[in-house]
Amino acid sequence: MPARSTVLDRESSWQVVEQQRRAIAGLLAELSPKEWDHPSLCAGRRVRHVAAHLAMTPSPPPVGVMIATGLRVGGDYNRLVDPLARRYAEVPVDQLVSGIRDQAGARRMPVLTNYRNVLMDTVVHGQDIAIPLGRTLDLPPAAAAMAIAHAVTLGRPVFDRRRLRGISLRATDIDWSYGAGPEVHGPVRALLLAVTGRTARLRDLAGAGLAPLTERLISA
């Protein structure tokens, strides 16, 4: 079954991105030095690395730098983004906060991306920061639904379709569903995190498909 969701248009999507960036900047501004170095939900990255990635999105490195880095890593997306974010994460944390806040409404994007990718990236990484710190970052269900509907259309490294083979998903707080087979149901935010490889909110999900989905995520 194809994905069904509430669709946000371009303008509404950018408004969500701006709201999320401002909320993330506000959260980051309150963090202690220890929290900045706390592991995020994004595998292998600490909070400061995720914040640096978000700060870089509306102000990416020059195209030449990205091409040169991409060639060095064989075109691997994660290996392209990770060293750039880690390098930028070395700046003072106040600069990371202001970089996100001051460019909250910016609509510039790195090459070869689009506003749907930016929305998905922003909302997921906001949760990557907030959840392991025990903090709450509000995520409108409509925004999470658009992000997950987009995620399931992508390939690696964002989404591995094998995770959902023979499993269906259904949000309980908005009209969204995907796939066929034993069902996993729950809040769309928890489904979004699971689809993008995070296990932190599996406890909010239920259904006959949850056990195989959990096993696949843990063994990935």
Automatic annotation (TrEMBL):
What this protein is called in its record is Maleylpyruvate isomerase family mycothiol-dependent enzyme
Which keywords appear in this protein's UniProt record, sorted alphabetically? Isomerase, Pyruvate
List the molecular function annotations (GO) for this entry. Answer: isomerase activity; metal ion binding
Q: Kindly list the residue ranges recorded as spanning the membrane.
A: none
Please verify whether the record's keywords include Isomerase. Answer: yes
List, alphabetically, the InterPro entries matched: DinB/YfiT-like (IPR034660), Maleyloyr_isom (IPR017517), MDMPI_metal-binding (IPR024344)
Q: Is Isomerase one of the keywords UniProt gives this record?
A: yes
- Give residue ranges for domain Mycothiol-dependent maleylpyruvate isomerase metal-binding: 18-57
